[in-house]
Give the backbone structure.
Amino acid sequence: MATSLRAAADGTPPPAPPSSPTRTGAPPPPSTWRSRLYRWDLRLSPYAFVSPFFLTFAAFGLFPLLYTGWLSLHRVELGGDARWKGLENYADLADSEFFWNALANTFTIGVISTVPQLLMALGLAHLLNYRLRGRGFFRVAVLAPYATSIAAATLVFAQLFNTDYGLINTLLGWVGFDPVDWESSKWPSQIAISTIVIWRWTGYNALIYLAAMQAVPQDLYEAAALDGASRWRQFVSVTVPAIRPTILFTVIVSTIGATQLFGEPMIFGGSLGVSGGSGNQFQTLSLLMYEKGWVTGALGQASAIAWVMLLLLLSIGAVRAVLARAARKKSGV
């Protein structure tokens, strides 16, 4: 107090009181190895948890994709050295009638199998959406073909469509039709293979549609019923527009599956399955790729076919994105 009065009399400012130490002004505590380990754990643990997926994808997804692209630009035979060819393998495919035949077969089998399959799946899902007795049993039953292996299902259908003693020709004979050569004729063989695909995948798509239908608000059906709409009108005007994104998803997935069709035609054709029959009447792109790579040993051409299939799938995905964007614009979302 006396010091302050004396400083005021002399005209000098009083000395500042000693400041107490605060946490902000105090130096940080020394970093120990435990604190550094804790910080490293916070930063690196998320990457360690997700690293198995990326390592697996790099080993079994990215590397084969890039290596196949490299092979498609070379002339490579089994047991031989690679020689640079550039885009010559792709040019050879453009001039190959076997490639265009396989591409046409892939398209026709895809259409024959995808369109009836999705229509039947939509109808099954509509029936299962009602309160039926034993509804749980029927839901499991429609999924049973999907759980069956491709080899077992194809072998059974190959016996059913056998030209000499098959059940299908026997039934056709009972109604007055001549036996059909299901293996050697083009359209009958493609219909038989498409039947296998339809049988295996209809129930799977039906359950996807059923899940989408159960998410549709019941208020919409009640409002439609009050307006006098029948069950069919409710299905057309309420159910189908509400599950349109799901329908588009199944169309894309089924198209991708049809593009990669391999097991059914190969097993159905027996000893001629790799070549797609005696006249390549049901040879798909996957079968042609397998024949080029492992029968004739032309790995470069097989890799070029694989990349053409990849470009087709990317084109399908691009079309799906364009259609989805157009649907969102139309709905105002």
Remarks:
- The first helix runs from residue 2 to 10.
